Structure formats: structure tokens, C-alpha cells
Amino acid sequence: MKKIKKIFDKYLDYLLIVIGSLLLSIALMIFLIPNKINTGGVSGIATVLYHLYHFPAGITMLVLNIPLFLIGVKIFGKKFGIKTIWGILWVSFFCDFIDKILKISPLTDSRFLATIYGGLLLGAGLGIIFRGRGTTGGTDIVARIINKYVKISLGWSFMFVDTFIILLGGIVFADVDLILFCLIALGITSKVTDTIIEGVLSEKGIFIISDNWNIISKRIITEIKRGVTGFDSVGLYTNSKKKTLYCVVSRRQVENVRRIVKEEDKKAFITIQNISILQGEGFRSQTAILDE
User: What is the pTM of this model?
Assistant: First the structure.
């Protein structure tokens, strides 16, 4: 039984990426792309080419993502590794499978309904992919490149890239209303993604109480690349001295911290809190998209 559980835990991330990719592809091919609605990124470019030249959306995203993936590996190393290419391949496959093989028609030709339901499904898919510590490439890589060389925060880098592609789509289709619908879809997607990952705010404050605090703190510092503060504390129930750890991480790093704690001490006590205000130079600009 333990062996089966170990195998399941090992491949759970890959399963989550497949499930998330399927939901994301349904959102794109049944709601968003047929109605010319894009939320930026590679899928936004694929939406434009799909309507202008009838290029298959899945293949288009694959062709655009592969060079970006190679650039990401060259610049950032192996963190853009197997899980990134795994997500890219499944999204591309599911999109063209739904559109070209199953030939499923869009569920609605109402831009309003497509914006709402497409945004919800897209956000859910992305959230599940991030929970599996995966990524779909595209905007993630471009935003990190901008952040690295132009020193613009990742949040602004994402917004710049996605907004540019949305505006491009509106200009190509000569439709101002379309731009507004795309921005609404982007907002819905972002909100749902945040909620699926764990809460609606970017950063999380994490308290950890464990007898193995030393190794846990070292792993967070080296693997997550976040600072950790240790407080001397007393467990009043047992009247025993303990060490309480506190760290602030991005929402996409929360799952990594939880896994580290679970691996080192299954009995550890951990609480995660939303942070509404964060003051401190450099934190947001250094927030990682996804750290293995």
C-alpha cells in the first residue's frame, strides 16, 4: 500500500497537469477562441491566427511555445524542464483533438456568456496546472525574460505581455468591444486561478511549528529561495520550548513549502495566511513564477 501511495504521489503532479490542460483546452475551443476572445499569451496569438488563416490552435501554440521553451531553458536552466513541456504538449493535443477530431461546436455564440464561462474554465485549468507545479509556457517565459533584463516586476511583465496581445487582437479584428470582453475574461481567469491555487492574494504568510525546524528552514531557503525567520516559542499545552518559523512566499510557492514540511515532519503544524499589505523592497519583483 505504501509503495502504491509513493508511486501515486510521484506522478500526481503530472496527472494534475493533464487534468488542468483538458479544462484549459475546453475553455479555449468551446468558448473563447470561436468567439475571438483571447486572454493574452500564446493562446491569444493562436486565436488571431485561427480566425485569419484557419491555423489549428493546438499546433500553432505548440510551434510558438517550443522556441520560447528552448529560450527559457537556455536563460533560466532546468526549472523550465519536463513539466513545462508536458503541459505544452497536452494543451496542444487537447485543443486540436476537441476541434479537429471530435469537432465539437462552440456552446454559445454570445460573447458575454463565452467570456464568463470561458474565463471560469480557463482559470480553473491554469490553477490546477499550477497546483501540479506545472506551466503552459508562453507568457510565463516571456514575462520572466522581461523581468530579468528590463527589471520590471513579474506582475507588470505579465500585464504588459497579455495586454499587448489583447490589444493586437482587437486591432486585427477592428473591434473595440472585443478588447473589453477580452480584458473581462482575463480578469475572471486571474481571479479563479488565484482561488484554485490557494486564496486570492499574491503573497502568503506561513507559520510552521516543527521539531525539524532546522532542516525545513534550510530547504525553504535553498529550494524556494525565500528568507525564513525563527521565533523562540513555548507550547503551553506541553510547556515545551519550540521554534516557530515564519516566511512569506508567492501563491505559486505555497504548495512547494507544504510539500517540504510534509516530507520532513508529517506532524508539523502549519498555518497559511493571506497578506493584504506587503512592504519591503524587492519582494514583488523577485517573486518566482514557478519554482521546482
Answer: 0.71
